[in-house]
Design a protein that fits this description.
Strands 2-9-5-4-3-6-8-7 form an eight-stranded mixed sheet. Strands 15-14-13-16-18-17 form a six-stranded antiparallel sheet, with helices on both faces. The protein has a two-stranded parallel sheet with strand order 1-10. Helix 2 packs across helix 5, helix 4 crosses helix 5 and helix 5 packs across helix 14. By secondary structure, the protein is α+β, with helices and mostly antiparallel strands. The chain is globular. The chain folds into two domains: 228 residues, NADH Oxidase; 218 residues, NADH Oxidase (3-Layer(aba) Sandwich), CATH 3.40.109. It has 15 helices and 18 strands. Bound molecules: flavin mononucleotide (FMN). The site of flavin mononucleotide (FMN) has 24 residues, from helix 5 and strand 17.
């Protein structure tokens, strides 16, 4: 990329370093120098009840973790992310003094920028087949920022971006359900107007999904209809009041904002994605709760019951979830693994079709009931006639992540290659965003199920698809989108995946 010319003309108000260099020291200095910081508008308290509700849900569902762990400088969150880079952010649309208003959320600094209010917001939502929620409710929009993952992982970082966003968006649904206020997640809607309103495309962000969080109800809110108190009193406990750490500032006047910093590297990365995500299915207005993959009832479970269980227990599972750093190699109970895996059949309310091309295969390789070890298709329960992979083979199939090779079980999420053709282009096809959403949300359910069953778990993006296809006897035309490992955790060391070098992607 050396020598590529980037000018600032593309985006009004954007500040990208000029690269029309003749190579002198002064030019080099002009490149590395920082522009002046933009003025900061005065901070206001968070007043809109819907915004308070959305912020407390974001804190609980994505941004904070109560798990007891030593992380050094790394700030743990409620969801995992490849390399712990969290390549997404959020916007919230809610009524402020009765006026539909759009806020951009800065999760690191705990600030909300008011971007637009009034008719512009309503028009953008109308064009996106979305609605401004009633007072006290909110629309939480997830925006992916692929660059954050791609700068470490290259093109594969785009898959990780989608999987990570799937974990986050799926967990927002679970966190809201855990509070007793199920909302609906929309993935199939026209994105252009919303993207423009939120200044997403010009800032190298993609609109991923929109989650409608209903206003707190009388019983849950304690003081229904009391505006601010409604969100404050909902839910009980510290998460409900976590919005008090946040402030709002007004950014509706673009001229007053000053130039936005922009990296030519991010622009180049963004341009390389052109056309990748245009194949959206027609808008679907109907949402319905459904499991995200075909998972048959497990005959070995008591009462054949699946799912994550009673929602009031979910906030605790969400708050204390962690990724295992390594596995000891000791066997774990097959019943515990099955208990963890049963969480996959939890229904989530989305606008995706009930039937999906996605399949799940479970490799049970080292349990305390060796007669149960085997490779199972989770839709049919069929046991495949393949031998179990050795520890060396698991290490190789996980890109030599040796610390993880002692996993007792492996869950593979896979689709026929033909189903990747594009959302709705023919029956049974979905685009990468939709399929990866299913995988990320299912991954999140597995993390929570494993937490409930006291089994260690980690998602992995570094895996060798052809080798796993052979080891697990998957259909020849299937692609694996995501893999998760379960086992007896060893949390003494470091998490290699958080290092700057992408070891599990063959970077050396
Ligand atoms: C899509 C995805 C891919 C991941 N890939 C790997 C991996 O290949 N190896 C690994 O050790 N951890 C992997 N992780 C786990 C992350 O490293 C972990 O989530 C991150 O370090 C944050 O730690 P925490 O989940 O304990 O909060 C992955 C997580 C996700 C969501």
């Amino acid at each position: 990329m050396q020598g590529k010319l980037i000018t600032r003309k593309a985006v009004p108000g954007a500040c990208a370093p000029e690269r029309e260099s003749s190579g002198g020291a002064a030019d080099l200095w002009a490149r590395v120098a920082l522009p002046a910081a933009s003025p900061e508008p005065p901070a206001e308290p968070v007043a809109a009840p819907g915004l308070r509700l959305a912020l407390s849900l974001l804190e609980e569902g994505v941004l904070t973790s109560r798990a007891n762990r030593s992380c050094g400088s790394y700030v743990a969150r409620a969801v995992p992310s490849a390399g712990a880079v969290y390549p997404y952010e959020f916007a919230v649309l809610a009524r402020e003094n009765g006026v539909p208003t759009a806020f951009r959320i800065d999760a690191d600094r705990r600030t909300c920028a008011r971007l637009a209010a009034g008719a512009r917001v309503t028009a953008a939502l109308d064009a996106s087949a979305l609605a401004v929620p009633e007072d006290g409710g909110a629309l939480v929009v997830t925006l992916t920022r692929p660059w954050l993952s791609m700068r470490k992982y290259g093109d594969r970082g785009y898959l990780y971006t989608q999987l990570d966003a799937g974990h986050a968006a799926g967990n927002l649904v679970l966190a809201a359900t855990g509070r007793g206020a199920a909302g609906a997640l929309r993935l199939r809607f026209p994105r252009e107007s919303l993207s423009e309103l939120l200044e997403a495309g010009e800032n190298c962000r993609e609109v991923h999904s929109a989650f409608l969080v209903p206003a707190a109800e009388a019983g849950q809110a304690g003081q229904a209809g009391q505006g601010a108190q409604a969100a404050e009193a909902f839910p009980p406990g510290p998460a409900g009041a976590s919005w008090t750490r946040w402030t709002v500032h007004d950014d509706t006047d673009r001229q007053r904002r000053g130039p936005t910093w922009r990296s030519w590297l991010e622009s180049t990365c963004w341009d390389s994605l052109t056309g990748w995500s245009d194949d959206s299915a027609p808008a679907t207005l109907r949402t319905a709760p459904a499991p995200l993959a075909r998972i048959g009832a497990d005959p070995q479970l008591p009462d054949k019951q699946g799912g994550l269980g009673a929602p009031p227990a979910w906030p605790e599972l969400i708050g204390t979830r962690v990724s295992s750093k390594a596995f000891t190699g000791e066997p774990v109970s097959a019943a515990a693994v099955r208990d963890a895996v049963s969480a996959l059949s939890t229904p989530l309310e989305t606008d995706l079709p009930g039937a999906s091309p996605l399949s799940a295969t479970l490799v049970l390789r080292s349990t305390t009931e060796p007669e149960q070890d085997g490779v199972y298709r989770l839709d049919t329960g069929e046991r495949r006639a393949v031998r179990l992979p050795s520890t060396d083979e698991v290490a190789r199939a996980c890109m030599q992540q040796r610390a993880l090779a002692g996993a007792a079980a492996v869950l593979l999420l896979h689709v026929p290659r033909t189903s990747l053709a594009g959302a709705g282009s023919s029956a049974g096809t979905e685009n990468l965003r939709e399929l990866a959403f299913r995988c990320g949300a299912l991954g999140q359910l597995l993390y929570l199920g494993a937490n409930r069953a006291a089994v260690g778990v980690t998602g992995i993006g570094g895996f060798d698809t052809p080798l796993w296809r052979t080891l697990a006897g998957l259909p020849e035309g299937d692609e694996i989108l995501y893999a998760l490992l379960l086992g007896s955790p060893d949390d003494a060391g470091i998490k290699f995946d958080r290092l700057a070098t992408a070891h599990a992607q063959n970077e050396r």
